[in-house]
Write a sequence for this structure.
DNA sequence: GTTGGCACTAACTTTCATGTGAGTACCTTA
DNA sequence: TAAGGTACTCACATGAAAGTTAGTGCCAAC
């Protein structure tokens, strides 16, 4: 699946034109979105939810180390961005389910391979700081 | 190209087992790598370099808004992580070329679609904060 | 002869993301 | 009756990330 070591050196590929022109300018919205999505906890939450609907307390346990404040904040941002759906049932004790929207699934589909790569290469990278 | 609205709701997919168990724990190396890679400027630099070797001052102009300090810092981190190669020629005036390593290219291949998605959806997302 | 480009480093400051701890309202179980 | 779970919010503290300013050595062009 890799281009193979001897066939050719890693290739530089031109980016799509609109991307090349669009992402780099300072004030562009994609930078904001990228910031939300690639925030410390954003990735983890999106990833966790890619496995399906989950409750507040599930997420809290899942994303090890997150504080309640950051969980609330991250979820709120992702909800405002239309990536996460919040479903609060008026029962007692409270029950709130979080899930990805269609757009959220689109994103997580791109995020999963990235995180998988990071996971696979993490040890090499962290150790190999020559 | 979309799964279509009526066929089925967006599907939850189980993550690869090792990923599901590996990424969420607090102290795991993948979190560090993810932090480097998804840092504000890391993404931009990796993206810029995916188009091929570039000089310091090229990058500085390309990643609009970056300070010299942040450029140096980001490049250093990515170099230590083995994603970026630094080639300093002993000429005057100094000339330093930066390029991606093979591992860097692997990463950028995953990053490009993500950024492209962010770019395409950015306006919708930023405006549609209902 | 001074301005400017090149590729940086270092010191200092500000801003912002994240963390901490407490409090809320209600109910269940011990 | 006290402890604990559920899903939060709010005020405050801290620390890391990012920005700012200045300075380096050398050369070329003006």
């Amino acid at each position: 699946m890799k281009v193979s070591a001897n066939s050719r050196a890693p290739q530089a590929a031109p980016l799509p034109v609109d991307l090349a022109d669009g992402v780099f300018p300072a004030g562009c919205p994609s930078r904001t979105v990228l910031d939300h999505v690639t925030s410390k906890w954003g990735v983890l939450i999106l990833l966790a939810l890619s496995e399906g609907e989950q409750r507040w307390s599930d997420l809290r346990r899942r994303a090890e180390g997150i504080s309640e404040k950051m969980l609330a904040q991250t979820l709120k941002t992702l909800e405002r961005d239309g990536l996460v759906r919040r479903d609060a049932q008026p029962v007692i004790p409270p029950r709130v389910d979080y899930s990805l929207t269609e757009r959220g699934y689109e994103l997580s589909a791109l995020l999963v391979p990235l995180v998988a790569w990071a996971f696979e290469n993490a040890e090499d990278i962290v150790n190999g700081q020559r």
Summary: Chain B touches chain A through 72 residues (CB under 8 Å).
